[in-house]
Automatic annotation (TrEMBL), chain A:
<dbReference type="GO" id="GO:0015658">
    <property type="term" value="F:branched-chain amino acid transmembrane transporter activity"/>
</dbReference>
<feature type="transmembrane region" description="Helical">
    <location>
        <begin position="194"/>
        <end position="210"/>
    </location>
</feature>
<feature type="transmembrane region" description="Helical">
    <location>
        <begin position="119"/>
        <end position="152"/>
    </location>
</feature>
<dbReference type="Pfam" id="PF11862">
    <property type="entry name" value="DUF3382"/>
</dbReference>
<keyword id="KW-1003">Cell membrane</keyword>
<feature type="transmembrane region" description="Helical">
    <location>
        <begin position="5"/>
        <end position="25"/>
    </location>
</feature>
<protein>
    <submittedName>
        <fullName>High-affinity branched-chain amino acid transport protein</fullName>
    </submittedName>
</protein>
<dbReference type="InterPro" id="IPR001851">
    <property type="entry name" value="ABC_transp_permease"/>
</dbReference>
<feature type="transmembrane region" description="Helical">
    <location>
        <begin position="262"/>
        <end position="280"/>
    </location>
</feature>
TrEMBL record, chain C:
<keyword id="KW-0472">Membrane</keyword>
<dbReference type="InterPro" id="IPR001851">
    <property type="entry name" value="ABC_transp_permease"/>
</dbReference>
<dbReference type="Pfam" id="PF02653">
    <property type="entry name" value="BPD_transp_2"/>
</dbReference>
<keyword id="KW-0813">Transport</keyword>
<dbReference type="GO" id="GO:0015808">
    <property type="term" value="P:L-alanine transport"/>
</dbReference>
<dbReference type="GO" id="GO:0005886">
    <property type="term" value="C:plasma membrane"/>
</dbReference>
<protein>
    <submittedName>
        <fullName>High-affinity branched-chain amino acid transport system permease protein</fullName>
    </submittedName>
</protein>
<feature type="transmembrane region" description="Helical">
    <location>
        <begin position="103"/>
        <end position="122"/>
    </location>
</feature>
<feature type="transmembrane region" description="Helical">
    <location>
        <begin position="12"/>
        <end position="34"/>
    </location>
</feature>
Length: 418, 372, 308
């Protein structure tokens, strides 16, 4: 017990050092001179309470741990039905889910639909990065570069050549793939964290080039007035921009409602996401998908089995980039305006967090994590300026809570007991 | 005893209920405040918040608008264009019809699209990018001048009063800074004064010693800096350490007491184009004091533009007696309004028709005087 | 000397100054990586906290009327190192130690979360606004012909060099001579084996974080005095640069971090000297990619051995 007491004393001492200068004293200015002032009495009370809390929680850490260990950790895998039952249920569940996703937007508010669209963009990004990081085990910290390439491809083609969203979508994806291929070629012989920093560098280089190439990309001004997608040539705006464009609500003879546009964007995102999920799901079962995982698990064994690691890595990199290109083109369409500020490093970090939180390699996990990571900052709006503080804190907590990810990837496997 | 207690309790409940009803009767009008409350530019978002909240407090104290009390609702976009769209949709969703914001031009642009479509009146107090109003929105206004006006004034002053030999134009690679720098450069070139250097620096950077050595080597005697005060402050400070002496000039984004805090003595004599400083306006004295009393800083460049943005809305509401955004917009376009930044008049696009910029000389104590 | 060579010399001096501070921060990355193989993204934030402590203490002491610069700096050094090290230790204890043994990406994400948390924590407690401190150390030496080009070395620059040199020497001595240092080296060779040999590896890892944080605090003091402007986000940019420097020199290698920092600083200065300054970061990242292509483990890094 005395040991515990000293421990608790030590912890509260640490807490005191942490808070007394940074929270207890505030920088202030008097005229043009820097000065300090003490925090208010109320804040000192909070500091005191915090320190007391640390002291007590350390003193009784055994008991607290005991209480927490009684709270069962939710096991998502247990909630799912058994394997065989699953096989028969799965198509029905999927159908239900898809129908739900299609009907849902008509019942909720515009803000929620828009948020869901954003979540879908992150699902696509997460799935793309999941190929690179989760399946092939290549740490990529500059994923946002391909996202930017996709977005800028559509924005530029739309601005200079007036091309439609649907025509640009494959071009954006293709160009992002090309970038993935070109960037991937030289760097893939790097290992582990060296690859990470090089991809981070590429991400930054692309952003800075977009920012500096003012003549074409508009530099920091970005590109505005990007066309929204149309439904077979029908536009979703209140007023027609040009004489010959047909408006959706006029064509069908219904009243204009601003939510049509939002819902339409959402539906496009749903279709794109389903497409991406389907393709990647198939790829994972193909030899190339198996090869990715084999490479992640053991590169040397992989090579000794005659697999070409350059081809495998490049395919993962390129396919990941393609998905990001898709998401980018759609992002540009949703925003109607893009500038290099949307493609900063922290964006890459968030996408990576989605993949890791989801349980690397697991599609369901990534989808779930993408939804959480998009909704969380929005829910935290209630806490106004404490929003990002909470977001960072929860990122740490989630990693501690489920280090293996929300839904870790599982493969049926047999183990020989030695 | 028991009975009395019971009676008292009933009475109390009735009174409480009545109170609740009467509070609910006094309508509140929500004013959305969209800007960064978190993230690297939160300090500018703070200025906007200080201005808007001060305006709302003052108006509420004076009895509100048409019998309604105002309430400021903060929407944080972190200056992230993606979040700005989400915020705009949320504002539409929440039924808020009057928005002050956004702050960063890159957030204002995509958000303005949505507001105009959905019938929300938006007045930005900080976004200076010309492209925002170029699209001919009906409901989008600003209480801050365009870059082009300031740039040409600066160029005139350089050509007519300073008459330097070797000019460098530096900017911070952001919309505001580069826009201004380009405007200055174009006008100088049009008058046969070709800048020797035209370069960008990285915003948020701290080390400008390499740039300063380059300026020194090129024998620059005049530097125009397009951008905000932190970078110019560091450039001035490091210039004086490195013994580089030239005349510096900047836009209103550098006119801030922080500049003197960063650069100290080196600020003395720096030129800047700025609107008449609002926090020194006689009409704003009480407001400045009120803000100071709350422990906040009234000197930021966007404090009083944000204050004025609220005033533009509320003055129009008072005059028309309505809150409908379209009617307010018509009124704002048609009449001259009296605000914290002086009398404002709008053109068809929603830009200020005249913004009275002057050239000032800055001093090391944070004050400024009109330049000759 | 000709104008060109003087100009080159001036840019070299500028580059070395900024490079030595990169090196100080980079050491924190490299030590942690060398021992537990993780990228501590929150390290830049520790540097930022060191800067804030510097400002607070200086403002406080000046407010109390203490003006003797050496004494002020000494107090600042002590307080900043203590507070930053405490933060470094706590971050490790709270965000990384519970995750030891899981996939190496898990602590990385935890670190990114921690970094976001600390930025906003300081932002909320000290304000997001730039805080500025007037120059405390003014003046410098100049040489060269004023008519051609004058080279200046400010006193502050020389202080940065000397302080960096002293800190680096102390660290090298600590790592190579002391018992703790030897334990650190053992850990970086083989963590599991060191543990088996009866060394409390958790303690050594905590020590690594404390030493790294102390060096970041020194960098924080030097840079906040040199530039005089800080905000809660300075750590992020500096951290990214320092991380680049650490990888450039070969992550896990302490001399590598020093070399990497200096090379990065000089590259930046030279790029800004001869090309438009906005391409500074493009060139430094480009250089990094190039070096890694030819030396995939950085300049002084140990080539990774492929184990079966």
């Amino acid at each position: 017990m005395t040991n515990k007491f000293y421990n608790a004393l030590f912890a509260s001492g640490i807490a005191f050092i942490l808070t007394c200068l940074m929270v207890g004293i505030k920088l202030d200015t008097e005229g043009t001179q820097l000065a300090i002032k003490g925090a208010s009495a109320e804040q000192w009370t909070w500091i005191g309470l915090g320190i007391a809390l640390v002291f007590l929680s350390q003193l009784f850490s055994d008991k607290i741990d005991a209480i927490f260990s009684k709270v069962p950790k939710p096991k998502l895998s247990n909630m799912l039905p058994k394997e065989q039952k699953m096989a028969t249920l799965k198509p029905w569940l999927l159908a239900l889910l898809i129908v739900g996703m299609l009907v849902w937007p008509f019942m909720v508010s515009r803000g929620s639909v828009d948020l869901a669209t954003l979540a879908l963009i992150y699902i696509m990004l997460g799935l793309g990065l999941n190929i690179v990081v989760g399946l092939a085990g290549l740490l990529d910290l500059g994923f946002v570069a391909f996202y930017a390439v996709g977005a800028y491809t559509y924005a530029l083609l739309s601005q200079y050549f007036g091309m439609s969203f649907w025509a640009c979508l494959p071009i954006s994806a293709g160009l992002a793939a090309l970038f993935g291929f070109i960037l991937g070629f030289p760097v893939l012989r790097l290992r582990g964290d060296y690859l990470a920093i090089v991809t981070l560098g590429f991400g930054e280089i692309i952003r800075i080039l977009l920012n500096n190439w003012t003549a074409v990309t508009g530099g920091p001004n970005g590109i505005s007035g990007i066309d929204k997608p149309t439904l077979f040539g029908l536009e979703f705006s209140r007023r027609a921009k040009e004489e010959d464009t047909v408006l959706f609500h006029e064509f069908f003879g219904i009243d204009y409602s601003s939510s049509y546009k939002v819902i339409f964007l959402y539906l496009i995102a749903v279709i794109l996401t389903i497409f991406v999920v389907y393709v990647i799901n198939r790829l994972m079962r193909m030899p190339v998908g198996r090869a990715w995982e084999a490479l992640r698990e053991d590169e040397i064994a992989c090579r000794s089995l005659g697999l070409n690691r350059t081809v495998i890595k490049l395919s993962a990199f390129t396919l990941g980039a393609t998905t990001a290109g898709f998401a980018g083109a759609f992002f540009a369409a949703r925003q109607g305006f893009i500038s290099p500020e949307s493609f900063i490093f922290i964006e890459s970090a968030i996408i990576l967090a989605i993949v890791v939180l989801g349980g690397m390699g697991s599609q369901v996990g990534v989808i779930l994590a993408a939804i959480i990571m998009t909704i969380l900052p929005e829910l935290a709006r209630e806490f106004s300026e404490y929003r990002m503080l909470l977001f960072g804190f929860l990122m740490v907590i989630m990693m501690r809570w489920r280090p293996q990810g929300l839904v870790p990837m599982k493969r049926p496997h047999l183990e020989l007991n030695r | 005893m028991n009975k009395i207690a019971k009676k008292l309790m009933t009475l109390g409940t009735v009174a409480a209920l009545a109170g609740a009803v009467s509070v609910a009767n006094a309508e509140t009008l929500k004013i959305g405040l969209a800007g960064p409350a978190t993230g690297p530019v939160a300090q500018y978002g703070d200025m906007q918040k200080i201005g808007v909240m001060a305006a709302i407090d003052d108006i509420n104290k004076a009895g509100g608008i048409n019998g309604m009390q105002l309430e400021g609702v903060i929407y944080d976009d972190a200056c992230d264009p993606k979040q700005a769209v989400a915020v705009a949709n949320k504002i539409v969703n929440d039924g808020v019809q009057h928005v002050v914001g956004h702050l960063c031009s890159s957030s204002t642009e995509p958000a303005a699209d949505i507001y105009d479509e959905e019938g929300v009146l938006m007045i930005t107090a900080a976004s200076t990018s010309p492209t925002i109003t170029e699209k001919g929105f009906q409901l989008v206004f600003r209480t801050i001048g365009l870059d082009s006006l300031q740039g040409s004034l600066a160029a005139d002053h350089i050509l007519n009063s300073v008459k330097p030999q070797r000019v460098a134009v530096i900017h911070d690679k952001q919309q505001y800074g580069e826009g201004l720098a380009t405007a200055v450069k174009t006008k100088l070139e049009g008058n046969n004064l070709n800048p020797v250097m035209f370069e960008g620096v990285t915003p948020g950077d701290k080390d400008f010693s390499a740039l300063i050595a380059k300026l020194k080597k090129n024998n620059i005697d005049f530097v125009y800096y397009g951008g905000y005060h932190p970078e110019l402050g560091l450039i001035l400070r490091q210039s004086s350490e490195k013994g580089f002496k030239a005349q510096f000039m900047g836009p209103e984004g550098v006119v801030n007491s922080d500049l003197a805090k960063i650069a100290g003595k080196a600020v003395e004599g720096v030129l800047a184009t700025a609107p008449k400083s609002f926090d020194q306006n006689a009409v704003n004295q009480a407001r400045v004091e009120a803000i100071k009393a709350k422990g906040e800083d009234p000197t930021g460049p966007f404090v009083f533009t944000a204050y004025a943005a609220v005033e533009v809305m509320t003055n129009a509401m008072k005059a028309t007696g309505k809150t409908d955004p379209f009617e307010l917009a018509d009124h704002i376009r048609a009449t001259e309004l009296d605000t914290a930044i002086g009398k404002v008049k709008y053109n068809k696009q929603g830009d200020l028709t005249e913004s009275t910029f002057l050239v000032y000389k800055l001093h090391q104590d944070g004050s400024k005087t009109p330049a000759q | 000397m000709s104008e060109f060579s003087l100009y080159l010399l001036q840019q070299l001096i500028n580059g070395l100054t900024i490079g030595s501070t990169y090196a100080l921060i980079a050491i924190g990355y490299t030590m942690v990586y060398g021992i537990i193989g993780m990228i501590n993204f929150a390290h830049g934030e520790i540097y930022m906290i060191g800067s804030y402590v510097t400002f607070i203490v200086i403002a406080g002491l000046l407010g109390m009327g203490l003006v003797s610069l050496p004494i002020v700096l000494l107090i600042v050094l002590i307080v900043a190192v203590i507070v930053s090290s405490t933060y470094g230790w706590t971050v490790e204890r709270v965000a990384y130690r519970p995750l030891r043994g899981s996939n190496r990406l898990i602590p990385l994400i935890s670190a990114i979360g921690m970094s976001i948390f600390l930025q906003n924590y300081v932002g909320l407690s000290q304000g997001y606004r730039d805080a500025a401190l007037p120059p405390q150390v003014v003046g410098g030496w100049t040489f060269g012909d004023p008519a051609v080009f004058e080279v200046t070395i400010s006193y502050m620059q020389s202080i940065i060099w000397i302080a960096t040199l002293l800190t680096m020497t102390a660290l090298t001595l600590f790592i190579s001579r002391s018992r703790m240092g030897r334990a650190c080296r053992a850990c970086s060779e083989d963590l599991g084996m060191t543990n088996l040999l009866g060394i409390d590896t958790n303690k050594i890892i905590a020590l690594t974080f404390i030493v790294g944080a102390a060096l970041a605090a020194v960098a924080g003091i030097l840079l906040s005095l040199y530039y005089g402007v800080i905000n809660p986000f300075v750590g992020f940019i500096a951290g990214l640069k320092a991380f680049t420097a650490a990888v450039l020199g070969g992550i896990g290698s302490i001399p590598g971090a020093m070399l990497g920092g200096l090379i990065l600083g000089v590259t930046e200065a030279m790029t800004a000297a001869f090309f438009p300054a906005e391409y500074k970061d493009v060139v430094s990242f480009g250089l990094l990619v190039l070096i890694l292509l030819f030396r995939p483990s950085g300049l002084l890094g140990k080539p990774e051995v492929e184990k079966v």
